[in-house]
Design a protein that fits this description.
The complex is a heterodimer of chains A (about 180) and B (about 775).
Chain A: E1 2-3, E2 20-27, E3 30-37, H1 42-49, E4 68-71, E5 74-77, E6 90-92, H2 105-113, H3 122-135, H4 141-147, H5 159-171
Parallel strand pairs in A: 2-6
Antiparallel strand pairs in A: 2-3, 4-5, 4-6
Chain B: H1 21-26, E1 41-47, E2 53-59, H2 61-64, E3 69-73, E4 97-98, E5 104-110, H3 113-122, E6 124-129, E7 166-174, H4 177-182, E8 186-194, E9 206-212, E10 215-220, H5 225-236, E11 243-246, H6 263-273, E12 277-280, H7 283-288, E13 297-305, E14 311-323, H8 332-341, E15 348-357, H9 371-388, H10 393-400, H11 419-430, E16 440-451, E17 456-462, E18 468-472, H12 481-493, E19 500-504, H13 521-548, E20 555-558, E21 561-564, E22 567-573, H14 574-582, E23 587-593, E24 604-607, E25 616-629, E26 636-646, H15 653-672, E27 702-707, H16 731-743, E28 749-750, H17 754-762
Parallel strand pairs in B: 1-12, 8-28, 10-11, 14-15, 18-19, 26-27
Antiparallel strand pairs in B: 1-5, 2-4, 2-6, 3-5, 7-15, 7-24, 8-13, 9-10, 9-12, 13-14, 16-25, 17-18, 17-23, 20-21, 21-22, 25-26
Classes of the chains: A alpha+beta (about 180), B alpha+beta (about 775).
The structure holds FE2/S2 (inorganic) cluster (FES) (2 copies).
One FE2/S2 (inorganic) cluster binds next to loops of chain A.
Chain lengths: ~180, ~775
């Protein structure tokens, strides 16, 4: 019996190299111009071309949320997004959350609550939580659970993460609804 | 039980912000896959992809011919070394025969991961398929094909009975269980079957190797850096002094990253390529390839009782799925026997337990190996026993559990233990006996887990400015245990923990230690750090005695000052003493954790001793779960889990609660959704997160935890015991008993998936009497 086919479900690299494209991405407010193959995913480009390794990769099938970043404010799994789809759009990664001297309230609260153990899920959790609080500054427990349900954590049991998001919501003044 | 035993509720847990926290929340902390070195290549493996076959051709030339491929290596390119604990049954690369689908045939280093994959796929692999061993019972038949033709051809350490497909055979024998059954009033027999499951750390493993001259540095996502180093040394025949293992931040392990994995493959590949090489696993590889997953088990257990529910005998036969290679599983048969026996007073015991070779992925130490499955079986069986004599499950346990001074089922006499307190605290917290809707019930599970005394060392130094460093072989896999080491040292020296930095996860600088395995970071590394800190404290006391013209024995070190006992005003800053020392005799300490022996047994005879027939500083625990079951769909939802743990003194409450909550969550997954299915070809059918479902935040129950902090002889620092594995043990048991209480019968397969619960409700699980026999004889009602 001869087996010359791939034993892994990862698609074998096609013989022909994918086209190389020049792409302009705005990441955490900084412009990046990169030449990348059209089939490169966003998480790989963030991590390798830009050196932003805070965005993690925990699977290959959109199932873990470790790679969560914001694309124009919306949370996406960057492992399953082509980098070229982000041309000209604003990307926020975990590195964009903290200011130079200060942790973001979500970062501070997730540490204070004990919601960080190995920390591998943490960047993705923070990005999902950030997106949630941007659209819903006073989420209920249930809304927090729904907002973070795309992020797996194997270490914590989740309770401390819910607590951290709730504490952040509680301490952040909610802007009055705009008049228009 | 005194008031003092009732701990503060979790809401009052003092804040303890971990030192590695800012790194982790800002994304600036580096994990292994985040490392990039100049000239670095990407590695990919070629796997067997077949469960049992004789290799007839392995041609790597097509891979080598691809431009951009720097090296392709196989068994021919590394020393021919057989390794593993207990039975040296494995090589780095398959040679002659492959025995599971995830076995590595070859490794490729190329410019990009895509190119490396293309090259791996280009390797020509031809083979003659061999019959697979996939069924644990069929594996025992004389006519069964063998996974290994001749075990005795391997180097075997220890004298565990083995042969055929039996890797190890252990037993516990106390009294005469058969005779006790003959004269018992009530006898209950049950069968339980647990599927294999996985550790699933969210970080897939990664390894980077770089040579400089004849020395190699390996960055790796291991829990046990010294085991990883020793594995590289053994298989590549290198001295320990030339192999340095560094563990960057580790993204979880749960035992799945214990042992020695691919460090030697990547070191050898890097040497062949003449470049640094990085391997990063895909999730699929994480599921099928490592020799660390939780073992499947078949448990047949028979318990004999007096009419009042007193247990008089237990007999059990246990089959544990070892998979294709032994990895670190040689003690599993004996460990499983202890968990099926359970923490009960049982005067007559006969348990036979066999670890069976199959063509599945190898089993290995995942978070309390064998314990959740053994506990699940033992505890579901216990509720069946209670029902058979008409007792409430809690009352039945009260009558039979081990207490301080009792002799347990393997003949060990227990010193101070807190199991009965755990039982009362968890059940009271849960409101045992309260009215619940008819689709809900409470279920209880109790269990135990040992501590392990292993060699561990630590260094400590205090600098001239009064800050200090701990240099430890401990490994931080997320639990926070390593972070706690600072507190232990600070207590000895009398300075703030924040003035102490940790140097850890580097075998070139730290003394040996067990790393993050067996819940032993504090138990062993903690004792070593205390020893090192005490040496510095002694030096500080001598310096202070000179300075204050007092007796060194009277010097108290606290709050950054050395003062004279009883005269706090006569004091000097510790930093001032440190400055003095910096220009004279330096402040340096070293500590060793003394080895702890297993407690002795009496009145028992145990076959195949692997050191698990008695438990050193045992941890005890009880979980009570409230579960809702939809009888129409079989879907169970865990709403609350009330836990009580005797882990001795709790040193870091935030970390302790974190371990309980994470362990419970993993236990809920094991209870309901996490199970590996195999095809007839012995390959995994669901090696992906889409089909192997972890619990999400939407599933998270509320968890209420209490600690029973009693004094334990032979425990770790300040009377502490281990904690990281314990909470994973009884959760599935408590969930299973709650499900049984709702639907009126136990679900005898783990995980208790919606489909299996539904089948039990519909009576579809019954026809196979050999897999579902509950017989009451004698005085049964
Ligand atoms: S890496 Fe898992 S969802 Fe993207
Ligand atoms: S903290 Fe480890 S996966 Fe969430």
């Amino acid at each position: 019996m001869t087996d010359t086919t791939s034993t892994s479900p990862t698609p074998a690299a096609s013989g022909a190299a994918a086209d190389i494209n020049a792409v302009s991405l705005s990441v955490n407010g900084a412009p990046y111009n990169v030449a990348i193959a059209t089939d490169r995913n966003l998480s790989g480009v963030l991590r390798n071309e830009m050196g932003l390794t805070g965005t993690k990769e925990g699977c290959d099938d959109c199932e873990c949320g470790a790679c969560m970043v914001l694309l124009d404010g919306q949370p996406i799994n960057s492992c399953s997004y082509l980098a070229i789809q982000c041309q000209g759009r604003e990307i926020t990664t975990v590195e964009g959350l903290a200011s130079r001297d200060d942790l973001h309230p979500l970062q501070r609260n997730i540490l204070a609550a004990g919601g960080v153990q190995c920390g591998f899920c943490t960047p993705g959790m923070l990005m999902s939580a950030h997106a949630l609080l941007e659209t819903n500054p006073e989420p209920t427990q249930e809304e927090i659970r729904i907002g973070l349900s795309g992020n797996l954590c194997r270490c914590t049991g989740y309770a401390k993460i819910i607590e951290a998001v709730a504490n952040t919501a509680a301490e952040t003044p909610v802007a009055p609804p705009s008049a228009g | 039980m005194t008031e003092a035993m009732v701990p503060a509720p979790s809401e009052d847990v003092p804040a303890f912000v971990r030192a590695d926290g800012p790194d982790k929340v800002t994304g600036s902390g580096r994990y292994t896959a985040d490392i990039t070195l100049t000239g670095m290549l990407a590695a990919k493996f070629r796997y067997a992809g077949v469960s049992h076959a004789r290799i007839t051709r392995l041609d790597v030339e097509p891979a080598r011919a691809i431009p951009g491929v720097f090296a392709v290596i196989t068994a021919d390119d590394v020393p021919d070394v057989e390794f593993s604990y207990g039975i040296a049954d494995r090589r780095l690369f398959a040679k002659d025969v492959v025995r599971f689908e995830g076995e590595v045939l070859a490794a490729v280093a190329a410019l990009t991961p895509e190119l490396a994959q293309q090259a791996a796929d280009a390797i020509i692999f031809e083979y003659d398929e061999l019959q697979v061993v996939t069924d644990l019972e069929a594996a025992l038949a004389d006519s069964s094909p063998l996974v290994h033709d001749d075990l005795d051809a391997y180097t075997i350490t220890g004298d565990t009975p083995h042969g055929g497909n039996v890797a190890t055979h252990s037993s516990i024998t106390v009294g005469d269980a058969g005779a006790a059954r003959e004269s018992a009033d009530v006898v209950v027999s049950s069968r339980y079957v647990a599927d294999a499951s996985h550790a699933v750390p969210i970080e897939p493993r990664a390894v980077v190797a770089q040579w400089e001259g004849d020395k190699v540095t390996v960055y790796t996502s291991t829990q046990v850096p010294f085991d990883a180093r020793n594995g590289v040394c053994e298989t590549l025949e290198l001295p320990a002094s030339r192999v340095r293992v560094i563990v960057p931040h580790l993204g979880g392990g749960f035992g799945g990253k214990c042992g020695f994995h691919y460090e030697a493959h990547i070191a050898a590949l890097s040497r062949a390529a003449g470049r640094p090489v990085k391997l990063v696993f895909s999730r699929w590889e994480e599921f099928v390839a490592p020799d660390r997953r939780r073992e499947g088990m078949i448990i047949d257990v028979t318990t004999s009782m007096a009419a009042d529910g007193t247990i008089v005998a237990r007999e059990a036969d246990i089959l544990v799925d070892n998979g294709a290679y032994i990895a670190d599983a040689s003690f599993f048969a004996q460990a499983a026997a202890m968990h099926v026996a359970g923490p009960y007073r049982i005067p007559n015991v006969r348990i036979d337990s066999k670890l069976i070779y199959t063509n599945h992925q190898p089993s290995g130490s995942v978070r309390a190996p064998t314990a959740p499955q053994g506990c699940w079986a033992s505890e579901l069986h216990t509720d069946e026993l209670a029902a058979a004599v008409g007792l409430d499950p809690l009352e039945f346990r009260r009558r039979n559990i081990v207490r301080t001074g009792d002799v347990g089922p393997s003949g060990q006499t227990y010193e101070e233990i807190g199991l009965e307190q755990c039982l009362e605290l968890a059940s009271t917290s849960a409101g045992w006996g309260r009215d619940l809707p008819d689709d809900e019930a409470l279920g209880v599970g109790i269990g135990w887990w040992p501590s392990f005394g292993a060699p561990a060392g630590a260094y400590m130094k205090m600098h001239g400015d009064g800050s200090a460093q701990i240099i430890t072989g401990a490994n931080e896999c997320g639990t926070g245990s390593v972070m706690t080491l600072r507190m232990l040292a600070a207590d000895e020296i009398g300075i703030d923990p924040s003035a102490i930095e940790l140097i850890y996860q580097d075998t070139a600088v730290a003394p040996v230690g067990p790393g993050a395995s067996g819940s032993q970071t504090l138990f062993n590394h903690g004792r070593a750090v205390e020893g090192a800190a005490r040496q510095i404290a002694d030096q500080l006391r001598d310096l202070a005695a000179d300075h204050l013209e007092a007796n060194a024995d009277d010097i108290v070190l606290a709050d950054g000052k050395a003062s004279v006992a009883g005269s706090p005003a006569i004091a000097v800053d510790i930093s001032e003493l440190a400055a003095t020392a910096a220009s004279g005799e330096l402040l340096l300490g070293k500590g060793n954790a003394e080895i702890r022996d297993w407690p002795t047994l009496s009145g028992s005879s145990c076959l195949g001793e692997q050191g698990f027939s008695s438990f050193l500083a045992p941890q005890f625990f009880c979980h009570v779960s409230r579960v809702r079951v939809d009888r129409d769909t079989g879907v169970a939802r865990v709403l609350e889990v009330h836990t009580a743990h005797d882990s001795g003194t709790i040193l870091n409450p935030m970390a302790a609660h974190g371990q309980i909550e994470g362990g419970v969550m993993m236990g809920v997954g094991q209870a309901l959704t996490e199970g590996t299915r195999h095809g007839d070809d012995a390959r995994q059918l669901n090696p992906a997160l889409l089909e192997y479902k972890l619990q999400t935040i939407a599933d998270a129950p509320s968890i209420h935890t209490q600690f029973v902090e009693i004094f334990t002889p032979n425990a770790g620092p300040k009377g502490s015991k281990g904690l990281a594995e314990a909470p994973n043990v009884p959760t599935a048991a408590s969930v299973g008993n709650a499900i049984a209480a709702v639907i009126g019968k136990p679900v005898r397969r783990l995980p208790m998936t919606a489909e299996r619960v539904w089948e039990a409700v519909e009576g579809l699980d019954q026809p196979d009497s050999s897999t579902d026999a509950t017989t009451y004889t004698g005085g049964a009602q």
